[in-house]
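Q: Hi! First time doing this. I have a protein sequence and I read that you can turn it into a structure. Is that right? Here it is:
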Amino acid sequence: MPISLKPLTFLALVALAGPALAQETTDAPATDPAAAATAPADDAASGADQANPTTDLNMGEPAAASGEPQVGQPYTRESFGDWALRCLKSAEGPDPCQLYQLLHDDQGNTVAEISMFPLPEGQRAAAGATIVAPLETLLTEELTLSVDGTGARRYPFTFCNRAGCIARVGFTAEELAQFKRGNSAQLSIVPAAAPDQTVDLTISLSGFTAGFDASSVPPDAAEQQ
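A: Yes, that's right. Below is the predicted 3D structure, encoded as structure tokens:
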């Protein structure tokens, strides 16, 4: 007949382990001489720390206010109509800003984006723009840009990355003036999947003049105005 071994109860285990535990308890010394010798020294060090509470205190550092942008972080400084003035927090000097607008097609889908910024005086281009189109854009067809349906110009794409295909373009003072007095601009691109079609996007110019003028004013100076 097979023998069934029942597990020992907790009390039985304690009873069996009792002699061993008792032996270990009686073998251990009641007091550690080394610990006893160092105890007064430890007490003295603790007393010294209490007598001089300024020892090894961390004085902390200024903390940024909640919501305040950190160096290298973009933020929206102000909105002008359909444009947002986006700036980049810099460690020194005024924060560089660009006027930004997200572009949608007729169905409301996000298709492209444009950022415009002023350029120093004394050169051919009075303003610059960065236009980002989808990766599926047919690059050889470039992009076409006009204001109120007149003076259309074609611009090549500069490069593509994970964000999309990017065109960096410049505008003369006359072309910038057209943006300021216009109602809307038209951006046209050709999809690579349908080279016989054109995607036409409308760029609202509502708030453009005030936003563009503000983009050349440092944030600190803008707050004082």
